[in-house]
Design goal:
Shape: globular
Largest sheet: 6 strands, parallel
CATH superfamily of the largest domain: Dehydroquinate synthase-like - alpha domain
Helix content: 40-55%
CATH class of the largest domain: Mainly Alpha
Number of strands: 9
Bound molecules: nicotinamide-adenine-dinucleotide, fe (ii) ion
Length: about 375
């Protein structure tokens, strides 16, 4: 039986090869004349911003480009984005990039209309005024941030990744163009794809899941099982790139309605303390968490095994993800990415603050999170 559910889909999603060409028409539709583009230096250097500038010029939209977003983006970066171009008085924020630029754009959109420090925005609906609308253009197939009510920002001083949660920060429009992920470096394609798989698996096994989130999670797992290897092997494979972008979108729709689990609760402090990229942290943790959770919801893991092309035995789901990690060159352990044992206690305390622990299907307390960190080390 399903948990009760409600849903509205506030995002207009446009998926199409070449969809970026629709941006001009999209802007004309919502009648905006001034836009802030939020992106990162890697994307600017790789030539992603120029075509967008041309489209905005043609559409006669005035814009500025805020280009300073870093992976695991900080409170300071958000504040810089708010202050640097305040003079333009923009009406929309366009996010071009992976989860980092999308989350900064969502937070800048809140900060512009609410005079409240970013750390005070942590949690559910901690702001009064509606944010500016956000148009999200993902360039990784991973986070699903283009449709989620979350924005994850790092408080560097406290080494803490805080999550802002509100249906009002869900982007109004998402433009999904497989051409934009065709030149992703293979290791980023791999780790971001495994972030999407972690979203789908954690959503599918979450205590807060429903028939709605299950439908999107199952399809996402199926697509990732079929296409992630092919995509990493050749990012120019259009069928694989398109399928991964859809998988990431569906996984985002799933977990937006179910929350996640221990892998995400633990991945955030790994980003806060050691700046481990989000996808890499999840990829290393996922098989450990699946193995730990297997006895709580065996029939869910049997189905995951099946969706990943294995016989429907719960343990096979774990083995399939281990093999996927190996095939894609994911580091075998947390120590391989610089994580040190002496931080486990502090990281566990932060993981326990995450709402995702409560969604995890096997009850989890401080000793269990510590043991899971040690196991993955
Ligand atoms: N809001 C949410 O719902 C949500 C969900 C999951 C993760 N997140 C957050 O998202 C962040 C991670 O985002 P991410 O994994 O997409 O990575 P990212 O945005 O940090 O990007 C990683 C790197 O990939 C490069 N890159 C991105 N697209 C590229 C392309 N097409 N070609 C070449 N290089 C490209 C960037 O320049 C950057 O150096 C984390 O902070 C995580 O906590 C948010
Ligand atoms: Fe994630």
């Amino acid at each position: 039986m399903s948990n009760p559910f409600q849903f509205t889909l506030p995002t207009k999603v446009i998926y199409k090869p070449g969809a970026i060409e629709e941006l001009g028409a999209v802007l004309a539709d919502i009648h905006v004349a001034k836009a802030l583009i939020v992106t990162d230096p890697g994307l600017t250097a790789a030539g992603y911003v120029e075509p967008i500038e041309k489209i905005l010029d043609q559409a006669q939209v005035a814009y500025r480009v805020f280009n300073d977003v870093e992976p695991n983006p900080s409170v300071e970066t958000v504040e810089k984005g708010v202050s640097v171009y305040a003079d333009l008085d923009y009406q929309v924020v366009i996010a071009l990039g992976g989860g980092s630029p999308m989350d900064v754009a969502k937070t800048v959109a809140v900060r512009v209309t609410n005079d409240k420090a970013v750390p005070d925005l942590e949690g559910a609906d901690q702001f009064e005024n509606d944010p500016l609308p956000v148009i999200a253009i993902p360039t990784t197939a991973g986070t699903g941030s283009e449709v989620t009510p979350f924005a994850v920002i790092t408080n560097r001083e406290k080494k803490y990744k805080l999550t802002i949660i509100s249906p009002r920060i869900i982007p109004k429009i998402a433009i999904l163009d497989p051409g934009l992920i065709a030149n992703l470096p293979a290791p980023i394609a791999a780790s971001t794809g495994l972030d999407a798989l972690t979203h789908a698996v954690e959503s599918y096994t979450s205590l807060y899941g429903s028939a709605y989130s299950d439908a999107f999670a199952e399809k996402a797992i199926d697509l990732i099982g079929k296409y992630l290897r092919r995509f990493v092997a050749n990012r120019q494979n259009q069928e694989a790139a398109g399928s991964m972008l859809i998988a990431s979108l569906f996984a985002g729709l799933a977990f937006a309605h179910s929350r996640l689990g221990n892998a995400h609760a633990m991945a955030h402090p790994l980003g806060g303390f050691f700046n481990v990229p989000h996808g890499v942290a999840n990829a290393i943790l996922l098989p450990h968490i699946m193995d730990y959770n297997r006895i709580a919801v065996p029939e869910r893991f049997e189905r995951i095994a099946q969706l990943l092309g294995e016989a429907p035995v719960a343990e096979n789901a774990v083995l399939a993800v281990r093999r996927l990690n190996q095939d894609l060159g994911i580091p075998a352990s947390l120590s391989d990415v610089g994580v040190q044992a002496d931080a486990i206690e502090a990281m566990t305390a932060d993981a326990m603050k995450s709402g995702n622990v409560l969604a995890n299907p096997r009850q989890t307390g401080t000793p269990e999170i510590q043991a899971l960190f040690r196991q993955a080390l």
